[in-house]
């Protein structure tokens, strides 16, 4: 007896597939076409470029737009009167400068010897300290007794030179047997003594830091250190820094000449103004050659009301200070004017201040008097208008020959 055949499930599934495909087609079998062969590229094989790495994040304050908020905040403080300029001692000059000396700016003050540069700068510094602004005064040619006498004289309305030389007693007295003691002498002496005592008490409380240095031995790098010290002890408003004067700045390198020292001082003053927000006033003398050529006339004697030059012509007069003058925000030039109105008001000398350069405003003139104890604006009637540039003199008419001589002047030379 034959056994029944049992097929596995796989065999049954294979038979089902054959039935579904139907009979095999007649004819020769068709071989499948091979895949086309891609031609090999000519030349060396180029490797694919790697994926670029993501750019790193820039540091803070890298792009200009990152400083926008700080700038807008500073403008807002100024617009609302929170941050104010430091006024000078002359209202007319303040109006030319937009209110005075602004923080973050470098102001250059040039003038000849005896023109009043230090007196003006020190009076401005003392008034700023009285208003609560910390002051760093770098006086490289003055000692402590000189500076104390000048400050006390300004505060007490007395001539500092008389105090310094002992010509004027600090607390004047009148003997009892003096015949004048019963009229004006004794009350005057008492008033002067009381005023001096008040000035001395005021001087002791001023936030005025004097830096005394040896000529040509004081490095400008110490300016930043002095400002940081003042900011640490007086963390209020930004300080006023006065450098008196530029040509006496020294250097740590003995090989540096005057130009190199001035260049370093210029960079330091700019960094102090920018980083500390300080108003920096730099004083510079002018060479003797500039005293006789500024504007075509003597710089130290400007004749008014006949003007001799425009204020903008006085940029570049500083001795060896070209770099700092051209990088400064404001350039001022002070000179004594030869004008017949001095005796009219009983004042000593009219001073002309040329605003020769002003990045944030116009150039112009301001006028004031130094009375011997302080500064006052020029009163009504003084030449307060902006002078006009003088016209060139015309050639004289006549028979002047090429050598400038005329038969009518006995051989004297004619100014052409």
Describe this structure in a few short sentences.
This protein is α/β, with parallel strands linked by helices and 416 residues long. 30% of the residues lie in helices and 14% in strands.
Task: Walk me through what this model shows.
The chain has 416 residues and is an alpha/beta fold. The protein contains 11 helices and 10 strands. Strands 1, 2, 3, 4, 5, 6, 7, 8, 9 and 10 form a 10-stranded mixed β-sheet that branches. Helix 5 packs across helix 7 and helix 8 packs parallel to helix 9. It is elongated and about 160 Å long. The protein starts with 8 loop residues before the first helix and ends in a 39-residue tail after the last strand.
Write the layout of secondary structure elements.
Layout: H1 9-21, H2 68-79, H3 91-96, E1 106-111, H4 117-130, E2 135-139, H5 144-156, H6 160-165, H7 185-204, E3 208-212, H8 221-233, E4 240-244, H9 258-276, E5 279-285, H10 288-291, E6 302-303, H11 322-327, E7 330-338, E8 349-358, E9 364-370, E10 375-377
Parallel strand pairs: 1-5, 1-7, 2-3, 2-4, 4-5, 6-7
Antiparallel strand pairs: 7-8, 8-9, 9-10
Helix pairs in contact: 4-5, 5-7, 8-9
The number of helical segments is: 11
What share of the residues lie within helices? 25-40%
- What spatial form do the alpha-carbon principal axes imply? elongated
What's the overall average pLDDT, rounded?
Answer: 78
Termini gap:
156 Å
Ranges where pLDDT stays below 50 over 5 or more residues in a row are: 292-306, 384-390, 399-416
Identify the quaternary structure here: single chain
Number of strands: 10
Tell me the radius of gyration. 41 Å
Structural class: alpha/beta
The SSE order reads HHHEHEHHHEHEHEHEHEEEE
Task: Give the percentage of residues in beta strands.
Answer: 5-15%
Biggest beta sheet attributes: 10 strands, mixed
């Amino acid at each position: 007896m034959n056994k029944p055949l049992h097929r596995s499930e796989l065999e049954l599934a294979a038979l089902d597939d054959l039935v579904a495909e139907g009979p095999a087609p007649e004819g020769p079998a068709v071989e499948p076409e091979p895949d086309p062969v891609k031609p090999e590229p000519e030349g060396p094989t180029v490797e694919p470029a790697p994926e670029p790495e993501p750019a790193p994040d820039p540091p803070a304050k890298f792009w200009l737009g990152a400083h926008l908020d700080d700038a807008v905040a500073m403008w807002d403080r100024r617009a609302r009167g929170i941050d104010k300029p430091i006024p000078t001692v002359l209202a007319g000059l303040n109006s030319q400068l937009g209110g005075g000396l602004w923080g973050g700016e470098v102001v250059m003050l040039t003038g000849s010897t005896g023109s009043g540069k230090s007196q003006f700068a020190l009076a401005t510094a003392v008034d700023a300290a009285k208003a609560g602004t910390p002051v760093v005064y770098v006086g490289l040619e003055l000692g402590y007794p000189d500076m104390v006498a000048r400050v006390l004289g300004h505060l007490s309305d007395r001539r500092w030179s008389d105090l310094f030389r002992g010509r004027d007693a600090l607390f004047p007295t009148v003997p009892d047997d003096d015949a004048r003691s019963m009229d004006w002498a004794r009350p005057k002496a008492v008033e002067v003594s009381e005023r001096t005592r008040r000035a001395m008490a005021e001087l002791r409380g001023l936030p005025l830091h004097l830096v005394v240095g040896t000529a040509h031995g004081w490095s400008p790098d110490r300016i930043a250190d002095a400002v940081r010290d003042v900011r640490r002890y007086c963390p209020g408003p930004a300080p006023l820094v006065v450098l008196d004067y530029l040509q006496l700045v020294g250097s740590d390198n003995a090989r540096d000449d005057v130009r190199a020292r001035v260049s370093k001082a210029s960079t330091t003053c700019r960094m102090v103004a920018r980083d500390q927000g300080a108003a920096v006033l730099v004083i510079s003398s002018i060479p003797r050659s500039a005293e006789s050529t500024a504007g075509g006339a003597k710089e130290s004697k400007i004749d008014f009301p006949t003007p001799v030059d425009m204020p903008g012509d006085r940029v570049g007069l500083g001795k060896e200070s070209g770099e700092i003058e051209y990088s400064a925000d404001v350039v001022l030039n002070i000179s004594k004017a030869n004008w017949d109105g001095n005796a009219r008001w009983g004042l000593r000398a009219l001073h002309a201040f040329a605003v020769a350069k002003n990045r944030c405003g116009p150039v112009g003139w301001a006028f004031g008097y130094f009375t011997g104890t302080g500064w006052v604006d020029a009163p009504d009637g003084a030449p307060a208008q902006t002078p006009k540039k003088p016209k060139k003199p015309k050639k004289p008419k006549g028979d002047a020959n090429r050598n400038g001589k005329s038969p009518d002047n006995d051989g004297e030379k004619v100014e052409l």
